[in-house]
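Submission sheet (multi-component)
Chains listed below:
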Amino acid sequence: MALRAALRNKCGLLSQLSSCGSHGRVCVSPVLVTQWRNSSTSSKIKVDFDQSTGVAVMHMQSPPVNSFSLDFLTEFCISMEKLEMDKGCRGLIITSSQPKVFSAGLDILEMYGKSPEHCGEFWKAVQEMWLKLYSSNMVTVAAINGSSPAGGCLMAMTCDYRIMADNPRFSIGLNETQLGIVAPFWFKDTMVNTVGHRTTEISLQLGTLYSPSEALKIGLVDQLVPEDQVLTTATQSVTKWLAIPDHARQITKSMMRKQTIDKLTSSREADIQNFVSFITKDSIQKSLRMYLEMLKKRRG
Amino acid sequence: MALRAALRNKCGLLSQLSSCGSHGRVCVSPVLVTQWRNSSTSSKIKVDFDQSTGVAVMHMQSPPVNSFSLDFLTEFCISMEKLEMDKGCRGLIITSSQPKVFSAGLDILEMYGKSPEHCGEFWKAVQEMWLKLYSSNMVTVAAINGSSPAGGCLMAMTCDYRIMADNPRFSIGLNETQLGIVAPFWFKDTMVNTVGHRTTEISLQLGTLYSPSEALKIGLVDQLVPEDQVLTTATQSVTKWLAIPDHARQITKSMMRKQTIDKLTSSREADIQNFVSFITKDSIQKSLRMYLEMLKKRRG
Amino acid sequence: MALRAALRNKCGLLSQLSSCGSHGRVCVSPVLVTQWRNSSTSSKIKVDFDQSTGVAVMHMQSPPVNSFSLDFLTEFCISMEKLEMDKGCRGLIITSSQPKVFSAGLDILEMYGKSPEHCGEFWKAVQEMWLKLYSSNMVTVAAINGSSPAGGCLMAMTCDYRIMADNPRFSIGLNETQLGIVAPFWFKDTMVNTVGHRTTEISLQLGTLYSPSEALKIGLVDQLVPEDQVLTTATQSVTKWLAIPDHARQITKSMMRKQTIDKLTSSREADIQNFVSFITKDSIQKSLRMYLEMLKKRRG
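Outcome: structure written.
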């Protein structure tokens, strides 16, 4: 709960996590790959950092579908903050260790049958995930090696570049309306910045999930490769981006994204209130229950 | 004139039209198709409402080319308001009963040789048409079964989805500059939201009319089908959109369009003044006269 | 220096250049082609004006690569102002007299090892070039008959229409980050208006230079033709655009571009300060020196 509480503050997480100690990396060899583990024993995210290249790989490993629970988001934000503070880390690849799925997005169990306080805390963590990733100084590449609906799609769109496995059984999109819920304005803004206004209007209203080839066609992903080449291609992409001087790339990135980020930063509290009052409605809770029961049946 | 006067008020039209009575539909059978007729004997718009599907079809039937006269626009707005207030009506298809044309757009006779007061009243009705359609809670589909220049194109762009007859003799676009007049900012905004900034810049300046295949390519329409399948395809599309929960779709639609709508709502009076002072200029009136004479010759 | 000083003022340049005299064109014959030369003996821009068509052609002739030096920009702005004031001149084609290059963009020698005052004066001239071209009442067409990186790409994007030579050895793009510098917000805005947000984000960060066919695909240029047909095609394009009534086209163009122009106009001084403090940094000066040395070696 200490980690969760930290999300309530604007100041950095790391400063409050002295028990985590330093990064724990040893500069022995430029090819040494150091694996981070947070103090938590059940880590939902594994970070491999290659000091020789300056590139970290985040493996999401939260079975079964890398749902964004409050614990997951907290761990994600702490990892981001560690990497961001490390001058040697210039690039980040996000991928999944789970089969067939990149991430299923927000964990519905954090919104169903929970107190308004809990829902608000959860939403603040979702905001924080997006803010940290969309404003990252690192080159960020999504290695989308499985389906990526809703919040999973958001995470991918929030990166600088998207490589997806060319498997027609995978899909990606902001499908919130299909569940009877609504993507907030900053999900929408991120999508408009990625695929333009018209495609966003139609796909957000219909909650469209796109096949990889459709996603490529509308610009929702940048590149398709065979499933077993997603990570290697992501590594090559990061290398290409890192050939650009960091300061020029970072200023340019900030110039492209600042307005969108400021919009949420200046209205976080109102956005949380808006989410809480929406999600705690009886009709919405009923929609979530029906969806959860449908999921149970499918798995049963 | 009572109907026209009603357009001057912000409050709903129906409240002032007690003589129109209720919708006049009888809930006898779910497959019953009820045809509405406004109190006016010479109806310019025929509305078929299918209670079993919740979908209404508006047939524009104002010979020869469904021009948006003040009477037409007044009738359109009243029909929209009726449908919007009917909880059972969730989808709307707009199509034409005239051969070869969807709509030729604004009726030039309402702007040529008319008083500033009349021009202002007319422009307010054009604004109202756009506001009602762009902010509609219904799923709106344009079944474009003929040419659709200027205001006709605007009406189509204002819907949620556009299906056009794949007939190379038909065309669609905002061709105002070719007539020496100018599309106002909210026509422009609607087009930018549909096809993006660059395509809008080039096509508005040149007043480009696109063939159906060109229109599909730039995203001005969403789908092409043979002429005799436009309406059935529109019906299938509406069905697909109505599978999404109304409240989630409506909130999402509003989020996508609110900013554009607010821009006109907050400057309607200035926009009217701007239009009136432009259209009543001698040079513009001369352009309109030349255009009308050209039309006469073409038909003669 | 008088010309340069004039750039500091908001009022027109010509009013302060009485020594330049009138345009020096004689209305003898409608097919007469008059060549302008500015008072400067070493003209960097040659303007051919065809009174019969109302179209001027600007030939950039500043060896070796039409770099935008302060002198070049000053001459460009004066030429623009002359043409703009001439009611008979309705269209402008910009092209290069140098082989293989349209323009290499900003002259680095104006930013390297120069005083803050000089850098500020230079930047004001770059702003003025863009403001004059982006807000021009004339139809402006870029006849891109060679490579067009950085500021050269900006000049092309600032026109109404872009025709490029279909030679795979030519390239175009805003490649500033590759040099360790950053395109300012109005370069970015111009690119977003041309190719959209996502393509701008990726190409500005990577400093991508596109081949003509790639540039066509993303919408960075509008048309590709064989190298020897660039100018004739540009002439045909201007003719097509001039078929539209000037006043309607001009109002429409202003409507599309006003917001972007106002953004710079209302923050010119801050933008200059921002540029000066950035470009005079030791680290940036070092980047520029390395780039200049690389250029020397390449040519040597």
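Remark: Confidence is low (pLDDT under 50) at residues 1-33, 37-41 of chain B.
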